[in-house]
Here is the input.
Amino acid sequence: MTHPATFLLVHGSWHGPWCFGPLITALSERGRTAVAVDLPSVGDDPAALGGYADDAAAITEAAAAIDGPVVVVAHSYGGAATAEASFGAHVERLIYLGAFMPDTGRSYVSYLPPGPPPPYVGLRDDGTFVVPDGQAIGHFYADCTPDVAAWAESRLRPQSQQVMAPVVTQASWRSTPTTYVVLTEDRAIPPELQREFATSADSMAEFAASHSPFLSRTSDLADLLVEIAT
Here is the structure.
């Protein structure tokens, strides 16, 4: 008997596995197992943070540790780190969820408009970047309830600037079937850019949500992920 694929969830900048808690529960209610990676580039101690290669290695190791088929779901910056990860044949599909999908030779920040960083990016002298006060809810949690948005904002942590410059050396999405899910109400990564990324995927879907649908439309997102993975 073939077991359904385990979902491996990859968070974006400033977040952690905590952001996927409701989604993991929703997937479990649908008979599906999901686990979340903890990217080492995010945390409170600047001296202890990893870089881009460390994030990619964490995803590679997490996928390899799962027994049976795997579907990787990468969100936001997590898509950039997933592009550099290495996967075995048991990884059946990548799902890019409102995520950067850089190609070989490109960094994820090279897809941003030239000029100063977006208003939700604040560079620090300690080598990290953070979300400035007042920027998170409007950009990341616009369609979340006020309580959920405030809770998520309180959990955000600094991320190492070491993730910004490195370029992709092996675009994993070129060798693994990939679906791109465009978040049509996203205020962080423009839907127009997401649709450009989607042209390189094997398939795509559009989902009416802002940047964090795992917190705002959890049940509907779980249904979509199961549908894509089936």
